[in-house]
Amino acid sequence: MTTTLFTSCDTAFEELSWRADGLCAQTDPDAFFPSQGESARDAKRICAGCGVRQRCLEYAIAKDERFGIWGGLSGRERRRISGGDRSPGGAATPR
Ligand code: SF4
């Protein structure tokens, strides 16, 4: 039973280990979770130069992260490229 617990923890740690290399780890985390109406431009600019951007984006899409800037994209932008946006005009809207 203990082995299973450690294996799960190890897997979770490995799954998130890339985050230590993210540029956001060195900046204000609030910039990546702007309030409604606030600009996400600064966070997106930081993401553009981040070495783990692709991995971050893939993680956020796989985990269906709804909020915040991940991999340089907002939640709505991520849903749009992953096909999960069911809003009018979204990628999953029947044409
Ligand atoms: S891509 Fe952006 S949110 Fe993701 S780790 Fe890099 S700086 Fe952070």
From TrEMBL:
Upon Fe-S cluster removal intramolecular disulfide bonds are formed. The Fe-S cluster can be nitrosylated by nitric oxide (NO). Keywords: 4Fe-4S, Cytoplasm, Disulfide bond, DNA-binding, Iron, Iron-sulfur, Metal-binding, Transcription, Transcription regulation. It comes from the Bacteria. [4Fe-4S] cluster binds at C24, C47, C50, C56. Residues 76-95 are annotated as: Disordered. InterPro entries: 4FE4S_WBL, Whib. Its main location: cytoplasm. Its cofactor is [4Fe-4S] cluster. The keyword DNA-binding applies. Binds 1 [4Fe-4S] cluster per subunit. Following nitrosylation of the [4Fe-4S] cluster binds 1 [4Fe-8(NO)] cluster per subunit. It is found in: Cytoplasm. Pfam families: Whib. Residues 23-80 form the 4Fe-4S Wbl-type domain. Belongs to the WhiB family. Acts as a transcriptional regulator. Probably redox-responsive. The apo- but not holo-form probably binds DNA. This is Transcriptional regulator WhiB. It comes from Nocardia jiangsuensis. The lineage of its organism: Bacteria, Bacillati, Actinomycetota, Actinomycetes, Mycobacteriales.
